[in-house]
Specification:
By secondary structure, the protein is an alpha+beta fold. It contains twelve helices and twelve strands. The protein folds into four domains: 85 residues, no CATH class; 89 residues, PAS domain (Beta-Lactamase, 2-Layer Sandwich); 71 residues, Helix Hairpins; 148 residues, 2-Layer Sandwich (Heat Shock Protein 90). The strands form three sheets. A five-stranded antiparallel beta sheet has the order 2-1-5-4-3, sandwiched between helices. It has a five-stranded mixed beta sheet with strand order 7-9-10-12-11, with helices on one face. The longest helix has 37 residues. The radius of gyration is 39 Å and the shape is elongated.
Length: 426
């Protein structure tokens, strides 16, 4: 309307176009002036000039005021939710540290400060492995595995221990959970020391008892009625000596670190020696050896030999004489596998997760008869742990079992597989 009025005045004076342009120029100046006033109002919060009236500016004010009030409500709600989250995380007994993709600290709760000495403001933006300086933390962050946990010494408490786990959290973020496990570590240490000390104390009297029983068994003056009881006592004394030896070995393995990688172990002779020790005995299934790789293993030869012996003994106990047991050694780009497979009775699926627990036996009555005490697979588990390996078990009732010891590439001497002329050894 303002432009039309300008054109009309210009038409009266014979210059309608000039009148239109002057009106447009004046309208532009007025709009710029209003824009400057609106900008000043944004800075000062005084919108009295725009609350009422006509035109676009009151509408702009109304829209701005609506969005501003809605933003204020959302902001208040966000602060309230953030406060509740902070209060709930601060109430947690476990430490929680939010880190980004670069492992830099975004936020931590009060427990993280108490357990790990983290400071919410000071340590924000710092890489968490630069504060919790432990190789296990670096391995945990690099693994990106929510099921993996590591125990590290507490950075704030002498003789304290923290259990650490990393789980996905939000977009491009992770949550580092810290839990005080000092009591568990101390209990495990006390248990380990007790077992070791008790085993040491038992070994001496068992040696004396076994000596006297051996003498009685060889003494011709012992009445015949004692022959069978003495034989039975010798068997039980031998069994107890074996249990004590395994308990001592377990205690040693639990307190040891990773096995050295400086020495290599040739697996083929170990498998052949294990087969020779058991093959041909009464009631023992057919044992075959399949060596498909010339690669060698980096580690402790004696401990790897105990792995083979324990797994083979276990297979023999649970495989009938007409069955078959296979010892195999294979390697590839992802590491190497030491495999003991049998066609025996198999294991129920619900028992498989507990097989490496000490003293766990699926059939306790039968284990007493054949000499098994449930420590062999526990020893295997700890030996493999010292060699950064894992035990994978596959089994089905009535169809046999496969025990696969998988060693990582850093534990395998990088030699190309050497095919054998016969394809294996029987």
């Amino acid at each position: 309307m303002f432009l039309a009025a300008g054109a009309m005045i210009g038409w009266i004076y014979g210059e309608p176009l000039l009148g239109f342009l002057v009106a447009a120029f004046l309208a532009l100046i007025w709009q710029v002036r209003q824009m400057l006033y609106f900008n000043r109002a944004l800075n000062t919060g005084d919108f009295d000039k725009f609350r009422y009236g006509e035109g676009i500016w009151p509408q702009m004010f109304a829209r701005f005021n609506y969005e501003h009030e809605r933003g204020s409500r959302y902001k208040k709600l966000h602060r309230q939710v953030l406060k509740e989250i902070r209060n709930s995380t601060n109430a947690m007994p476990d430490g929680a540290v939010i880190i980004d993709d670069d492992n830099e600290i975004v936020l931590c709760n009060r427990a993280a400060k108490a357990l790990a000495g983290l400071k919410r403001k000071k340590d924000r933006g710092q890489r968490v492995e630069n504060i919790l300086r432990d190789p296990e933390i670096t391995r945990l962050l690099d693994a990106n595995d929510a099921t993996l946990t590591v125990d590290i010494p507490s950075p704030v408490t002498d003789n304290g221990w923290l259990n650490c786990r990393v789980v996905p959290y939000g977009v491009d973020q992770k949550l580092l959970l810290l839990r005080d496990v000092t009591e568990r570590i101390e209990l495990n240490r006390m248990r380990r020391d007790f077992v070791a000390n008790a085993s040491h104390e038992l070994r001496s009297p068992l040696t004396v008892i076994s000596g006297y029983l051996d003498s009685m068994a060889e003494d011709k003056q012992v009445v015949s009625t004692w022959t069978q009881p003495v034989k039975r006592m010798r068997e039980q004394a031998k069994r107890m000596t074996h249990i004590v030896a395994e308990l001592l070995e377990l205690s040693r393995l639990e307190g040891a670190g990773h096995a050295s990688i400086e020495k290599t172990v040739d697996i083929a002779p170990l498998l052949a020696s294990a087969r020779k020790a058991f093959a041909g005995q009464a009631g023992v299934a057919d044992i075959s050896v399949e060596v498909e790789s010339a690669a060698q293993l980096r580690g402790n030869a004696g401990e790897i030999d105990s792995v083979v012996t324990n797994l083979l003994s276990n297979a023999i106990r649970h495989t009938p004489a007409d069955g078959k047991i296979t010892l195999a050694w294979r390697s590839g780009s992802d590491g190497a596998d030491l495999i003991v497979a049998d066609t025996g009775e198999g294991i129920a699926e619900e028992h498989i997760p507990r097989l490496t627990e000490r003293f766990f036996r699926v059939d306790r009555g039968r284990a007493r008869e054949d000499g098994g005490v449930g420590l062999g697979l526990a020893i295997v588990k700890h030996v493999l742990g010292r060699h950064e390996a894992e035990l994978r078990i596959e089994s089905e009732l009535g169809a046999g079992s496969v025990f696969c010891c998988h060693f990582p590439p850093q534990r395998v001497d990088a030699e190309p597989p050497a095919p054998l002329a016969s394809g294996g050894q029987n």
